[in-house]
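This entry is listed as follows:

___
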Amino acid sequence: MFELIDINRFPAFILILVRVLAFFATVPIFSYRNIPTHLKIGMGVFIAWIMFYTLEVPELAFDGMYLLFIMKEAIIGLFLGLIAYLILSAIQIAGGFIDFQMGFAIANVVDPQTGAQSPLIGQYFYTIAILFLLTVDGHHLFINGIMYSFEEIPLDQLIEFNNIELILQTFSKMFLMAFQLALPVVGCLFLVDVALGIIARTVPQLNVFVVGLPLKILVSFLVLFMFVTFYMMIVEKLFQFTLETMRNLMQLFGGA
Protein backbone atom coordinates (compact mmCIF):
# COMPACT_ATOMS: atom_id res chain seq x y z
CA MET A 1 0.00 0.00 0.00
CA PHE A 2 1.45 3.35 -1.05
CA GLU A 3 2.40 5.87 1.54
CA LEU A 4 0.65 9.20 1.25
CA ILE A 5 2.80 12.08 0.02
CA ASP A 6 3.89 14.41 2.80
CA ILE A 7 2.62 17.93 2.09
CA ASN A 8 6.11 19.29 2.72
CA ARG A 9 7.58 16.95 0.10
CA PHE A 10 4.83 17.39 -2.47
CA PRO A 11 6.65 20.31 -4.23
CA ALA A 12 9.60 17.97 -4.81
CA PHE A 13 7.28 15.43 -6.46
CA ILE A 14 6.03 18.14 -8.83
CA LEU A 15 9.63 18.96 -9.80
CA ILE A 16 10.39 15.30 -10.49
CA LEU A 17 7.24 15.01 -12.57
CA VAL A 18 8.10 18.11 -14.63
CA ARG A 19 11.58 16.77 -15.47
CA VAL A 20 10.28 13.33 -16.44
CA LEU A 21 7.44 14.67 -18.61
CA ALA A 22 9.76 17.16 -20.34
CA PHE A 23 12.18 14.31 -20.99
CA PHE A 24 9.43 12.16 -22.51
CA ALA A 25 8.42 15.06 -24.75
CA THR A 26 11.70 15.01 -26.72
CA VAL A 27 13.57 11.72 -26.15
CA PRO A 28 13.40 9.11 -28.95
CA ILE A 29 10.88 6.24 -28.68
CA PHE A 30 8.82 7.92 -25.92
CA SER A 31 8.16 11.17 -27.81
CA TYR A 32 6.71 9.68 -30.98
CA ARG A 33 3.27 10.79 -32.13
CA ASN A 34 1.94 7.26 -32.50
CA ILE A 35 2.21 6.80 -28.72
CA PRO A 36 -0.97 8.20 -27.09
CA THR A 37 -0.51 11.32 -24.99
CA HIS A 38 -2.50 9.81 -22.13
CA LEU A 39 -0.05 6.89 -22.04
CA LYS A 40 2.94 9.25 -21.97
CA ILE A 41 1.48 11.27 -19.08
CA GLY A 42 0.43 8.16 -17.15
CA MET A 43 3.84 6.57 -17.63
CA GLY A 44 5.55 9.79 -16.59
CA VAL A 45 3.45 10.06 -13.41
CA PHE A 46 4.11 6.41 -12.56
CA ILE A 47 7.89 6.73 -13.07
CA ALA A 48 7.97 10.02 -11.15
CA TRP A 49 6.08 8.33 -8.30
CA ILE A 50 8.69 5.54 -8.14
CA MET A 51 11.55 8.05 -8.24
CA PHE A 52 9.93 10.08 -5.49
CA TYR A 53 10.20 7.16 -3.06
CA THR A 54 13.64 6.13 -4.35
CA LEU A 55 15.44 9.47 -4.13
CA GLU A 56 16.21 11.59 -1.12
CA VAL A 57 14.02 14.57 -1.91
CA PRO A 58 14.34 17.88 -0.03
CA GLU A 59 11.51 19.87 1.49
CA LEU A 60 10.70 22.88 -0.65
CA ALA A 61 8.28 25.76 -0.29
CA PHE A 62 5.98 27.30 -2.89
CA ASP A 63 7.75 30.64 -3.36
CA GLY A 64 9.45 32.64 -6.08
CA MET A 65 12.49 30.37 -6.11
CA TYR A 66 10.21 27.39 -6.68
CA LEU A 67 9.11 28.85 -10.03
CA LEU A 68 12.77 28.97 -11.07
CA PHE A 69 13.15 25.33 -10.02
CA ILE A 70 10.19 24.37 -12.22
CA MET A 71 11.71 26.17 -15.22
CA LYS A 72 15.04 24.50 -14.47
CA GLU A 73 13.49 21.02 -14.39
CA ALA A 74 11.68 21.62 -17.70
CA ILE A 75 14.92 22.82 -19.35
CA ILE A 76 16.88 19.83 -18.08
CA GLY A 77 14.30 17.31 -19.27
CA LEU A 78 13.93 18.95 -22.68
CA PHE A 79 17.69 19.24 -23.23
CA LEU A 80 18.46 15.65 -22.21
CA GLY A 81 15.82 14.28 -24.55
CA LEU A 82 16.70 16.70 -27.34
CA ILE A 83 20.42 15.86 -27.28
CA ALA A 84 19.55 12.16 -27.66
CA TYR A 85 17.15 12.92 -30.50
CA LEU A 86 19.68 15.09 -32.35
CA ILE A 87 22.41 12.45 -32.15
CA LEU A 88 20.12 9.73 -33.48
CA SER A 89 19.09 12.12 -36.26
CA ALA A 90 22.55 11.45 -37.74
CA ILE A 91 20.99 8.28 -39.16
CA GLN A 92 18.46 10.28 -41.17
CA ILE A 93 21.17 12.70 -42.27
CA ALA A 94 23.15 9.74 -43.63
CA GLY A 95 20.01 8.53 -45.41
CA GLY A 96 19.63 11.97 -46.96
CA PHE A 97 23.17 11.79 -48.35
CA ILE A 98 22.45 8.38 -49.87
CA ASP A 99 19.07 9.41 -51.29
CA PHE A 100 20.62 12.40 -52.99
CA GLN A 101 23.13 10.18 -54.79
CA MET A 102 20.56 7.49 -55.63
CA GLY A 103 18.04 9.93 -57.05
CA PHE A 104 15.50 9.33 -54.29
CA ALA A 105 15.77 12.84 -52.84
CA ILE A 106 12.59 13.90 -54.62
CA ALA A 107 10.61 11.05 -53.03
CA ASN A 108 10.65 12.06 -49.38
CA VAL A 109 8.01 10.44 -47.17
CA VAL A 110 6.20 11.68 -44.08
CA ASP A 111 7.56 10.07 -40.93
CA PRO A 112 4.53 8.92 -38.89
CA GLN A 113 6.59 9.09 -35.70
CA THR A 114 7.55 12.76 -35.92
CA GLY A 115 5.17 14.10 -38.59
CA ALA A 116 8.09 15.58 -40.58
CA GLN A 117 9.41 14.63 -44.00
CA SER A 118 12.32 12.21 -44.04
CA PRO A 119 14.34 10.50 -46.80
CA LEU A 120 13.44 6.96 -47.83
CA ILE A 121 16.75 5.34 -46.97
CA GLY A 122 17.00 7.49 -43.84
CA GLN A 123 13.62 6.19 -42.70
CA TYR A 124 14.76 2.63 -43.39
CA PHE A 125 17.96 3.19 -41.38
CA TYR A 126 16.10 4.89 -38.56
CA THR A 127 13.56 2.06 -38.25
CA ILE A 128 16.37 -0.51 -37.95
CA ALA A 129 18.12 1.69 -35.38
CA ILE A 130 14.97 1.99 -33.24
CA LEU A 131 14.45 -1.80 -33.40
CA PHE A 132 18.08 -2.20 -32.34
CA LEU A 133 17.55 0.14 -29.38
CA LEU A 134 14.48 -1.79 -28.29
CA THR A 135 16.40 -5.07 -28.63
CA VAL A 136 19.20 -3.92 -26.31
CA ASP A 137 16.71 -2.30 -23.87
CA GLY A 138 17.69 1.20 -24.93
CA HIS A 139 14.39 2.58 -23.62
CA HIS A 140 15.29 1.26 -20.17
CA LEU A 141 18.69 2.94 -20.43
CA PHE A 142 17.00 6.24 -21.25
CA ILE A 143 14.84 5.91 -18.11
CA ASN A 144 17.96 5.01 -16.13
CA GLY A 145 19.59 8.15 -17.51
CA ILE A 146 16.81 10.45 -16.28
CA MET A 147 17.04 8.67 -12.92
CA TYR A 148 20.78 9.29 -12.82
CA SER A 149 20.23 12.96 -13.63
CA PHE A 150 18.75 13.57 -10.17
CA GLU A 151 22.07 12.53 -8.63
CA GLU A 152 24.05 14.91 -10.81
CA ILE A 153 21.53 17.78 -10.68
CA PRO A 154 19.63 17.89 -7.35
CA LEU A 155 16.14 19.33 -7.21
CA ASP A 156 17.14 22.27 -5.01
CA GLN A 157 20.12 23.32 -7.15
CA LEU A 158 20.06 25.69 -10.12
CA ILE A 159 21.93 24.73 -13.27
CA GLU A 160 25.19 26.18 -14.51
CA PHE A 161 25.90 26.33 -18.23
CA ASN A 162 28.96 28.33 -19.20
CA ASN A 163 30.63 25.99 -21.70
CA ILE A 164 29.33 25.33 -25.22
CA GLU A 165 32.28 23.13 -26.21
CA LEU A 166 30.25 19.99 -25.46
CA ILE A 167 27.47 21.09 -27.84
CA LEU A 168 29.95 21.85 -30.63
CA GLN A 169 31.71 18.51 -30.18
CA THR A 170 28.37 16.71 -30.21
CA PHE A 171 27.31 18.27 -33.50
CA SER A 172 30.70 17.61 -35.12
CA LYS A 173 30.67 13.93 -34.07
CA MET A 174 27.05 13.61 -35.20
CA PHE A 175 27.92 14.70 -38.74
CA LEU A 176 31.06 12.54 -38.68
CA MET A 177 29.01 9.43 -37.84
CA ALA A 178 26.45 10.37 -40.49
CA PHE A 179 29.27 10.55 -43.03
CA GLN A 180 30.60 7.16 -41.88
CA LEU A 181 27.15 5.63 -42.34
CA ALA A 182 26.75 7.04 -45.83
CA LEU A 183 30.37 6.57 -46.97
CA PRO A 184 30.13 3.01 -48.41
CA VAL A 185 27.10 3.77 -50.57
CA VAL A 186 28.10 7.31 -51.53
CA GLY A 187 31.63 6.16 -52.39
CA CYS A 188 30.38 3.35 -54.63
CA LEU A 189 27.90 5.69 -56.34
CA PHE A 190 30.71 8.15 -56.98
CA LEU A 191 32.63 5.40 -58.79
CA VAL A 192 29.47 4.58 -60.76
CA ASP A 193 29.18 8.25 -61.80
CA VAL A 194 32.81 8.21 -62.93
CA ALA A 195 32.22 5.03 -64.94
CA LEU A 196 29.09 6.49 -66.53
CA GLY A 197 31.03 9.64 -67.45
CA ILE A 198 33.70 7.56 -69.17
CA ILE A 199 31.03 5.56 -71.02
CA ALA A 200 29.30 8.76 -72.13
CA ARG A 201 32.58 9.99 -73.66
CA THR A 202 33.50 6.70 -75.31
CA VAL A 203 30.02 5.57 -76.43
CA PRO A 204 28.02 8.73 -77.23
CA GLN A 205 25.15 6.67 -78.66
CA LEU A 206 24.35 5.28 -75.19
CA ASN A 207 21.93 7.39 -73.16
CA VAL A 208 23.58 7.35 -69.73
CA PHE A 209 20.65 9.16 -68.14
CA VAL A 210 18.36 6.23 -68.96
CA VAL A 211 20.88 3.59 -67.90
CA GLY A 212 22.42 5.47 -64.98
CA LEU A 213 19.43 5.80 -62.63
CA PRO A 214 18.44 2.10 -62.42
CA LEU A 215 22.11 1.13 -62.31
CA LYS A 216 22.77 3.43 -59.35
CA ILE A 217 19.69 2.11 -57.53
CA LEU A 218 20.84 -1.50 -58.08
CA VAL A 219 24.37 -0.75 -56.90
CA SER A 220 23.04 1.09 -53.83
CA PHE A 221 20.88 -1.82 -52.73
CA LEU A 222 23.72 -4.30 -53.26
CA VAL A 223 26.09 -2.16 -51.18
CA LEU A 224 23.45 -1.70 -48.45
CA PHE A 225 23.00 -5.46 -48.29
CA MET A 226 26.75 -6.03 -48.03
CA PHE A 227 27.33 -3.37 -45.34
CA VAL A 228 24.47 -4.20 -42.94
CA THR A 229 26.93 -5.50 -40.33
CA PHE A 230 29.03 -2.36 -40.66
CA TYR A 231 25.90 -0.28 -40.26
CA MET A 232 24.91 -2.07 -37.03
CA MET A 233 28.38 -1.41 -35.61
CA ILE A 234 28.00 2.31 -36.33
CA VAL A 235 24.52 2.34 -34.75
CA GLU A 236 25.88 0.67 -31.61
CA LYS A 237 28.67 3.25 -31.45
CA LEU A 238 26.13 6.03 -32.00
CA PHE A 239 23.96 4.78 -29.13
CA GLN A 240 26.96 4.59 -26.78
CA PHE A 241 27.87 8.13 -27.78
CA THR A 242 24.29 9.22 -27.03
CA LEU A 243 24.41 7.87 -23.47
CA GLU A 244 27.87 9.35 -22.93
CA THR A 245 26.78 12.77 -24.17
CA MET A 246 23.70 12.72 -21.93
CA ARG A 247 25.90 11.94 -18.93
CA ASN A 248 28.34 14.74 -19.85
CA LEU A 249 25.45 17.17 -20.25
CA MET A 250 24.17 16.25 -16.76
CA GLN A 251 27.61 16.88 -15.29
CA LEU A 252 27.82 20.19 -17.15
CA PHE A 253 24.43 21.28 -15.80
CA GLY A 254 25.48 20.14 -12.33
CA GLY A 255 28.59 22.33 -12.42
CA ALA A 256 31.05 19.42 -12.52
Summary: The mean pLDDT is 81. The chain is about 75% helix and 0% strand.
